[in-house]
Each structure stands twice: as C-alpha cells, then as structure tokens.
Design goal:
- About 65% of the residues lie in helices and about 0% in strands.
- Helix 1 runs antiparallel to helix 2.
Length: about 120
C-alpha cells in the first residue's frame, strides 16, 4: 500500500452513515465512556477496569475496521496490477503513469476504442 496508511480508500468500501458510525463513532464513544467512568470513579479500581474494558473494545473495533480496509485496498492494488499485465500482453510494454491514471479515472485504456467489440451494430 502506498501513501498514508490511515487514508485507506477503495471503490469497494461503502461510506454510508452507518459505516462511518461503525468505523469512527462507536469506537470513539466506547473509549470516551471508559474515560468518563475512569474519571468519575476517581481513578479507582472500578474506573480503571471499566476504562480498560471500554477502551479495549473501542480500539479493537477500530483496529478490525482498519485492517479490513487495508485488505480491501490490497484487492484494488491486485486488480490494477492485473490490468497493467493485460496491457503489457496486448501492447508489449508496461503502461505509463498517464495511461494508468486514465484507466483508473475512466475504466479503459486511452487507446481503446469506445465502440462495442461487434463494431457498433448491436448484433
């Protein structure tokens, strides 16, 4: 994976409100609840145990989400590699940075014809 490991983006990853709640808000709320209980108990035994449990649960949820997103972004990298290898077979050379960017943006190589393979007759 390239770039910032905390910025894991993929077309396969949903970004709905529910997913954002699961990724960020639920783990944050659990860690905050543990911190509140720790402070409310005056840093005593119950508060420390509650903090450990809640913070552990929140961080576990966040970590599992992070690792899952890393795995999915790895699938995207493998797909891009497979596309580049297919380009290599078809053209006899590796695609340039410009060609790979075009493929990522448009879903086709710059030199591909836009007509359907049957010549546009629809038969």
């Amino acid at each position: 994976m390239t770039g910032n490991p905390f910025n894991v983006r993929s077309q396969r990853l949903p970004a709905s409100l529910g997913v954002r709640l699961l990724r960020w808000w639920i783990p944050g709320a659990l860690c905050l609840a543990g911190t509140v209980l720790l402070v409310a108990d005056g840093f005593d035994t119950f508060g420390a145990s509650a903090f450990g449990g809640f913070a552990g649960a929140g961080l576990s949820i966040w970590l599992i989400n992070f690792l899952w997103r890393m795995g999915v972004s790895g699938d995207d990298e493998r797909d891009r590699e497979a596309q580049a290898r297919a380009f290599l077979v078809a053209h006899g050379r590796w695609p340039s940075t410009h060609e790979r960017a075009h493929m990522a943006a448009h879903g086709r190589w710059p030199d591909e014809d836009r007509r359907p393979p049957d010549g546009g007759h629809g038969r």
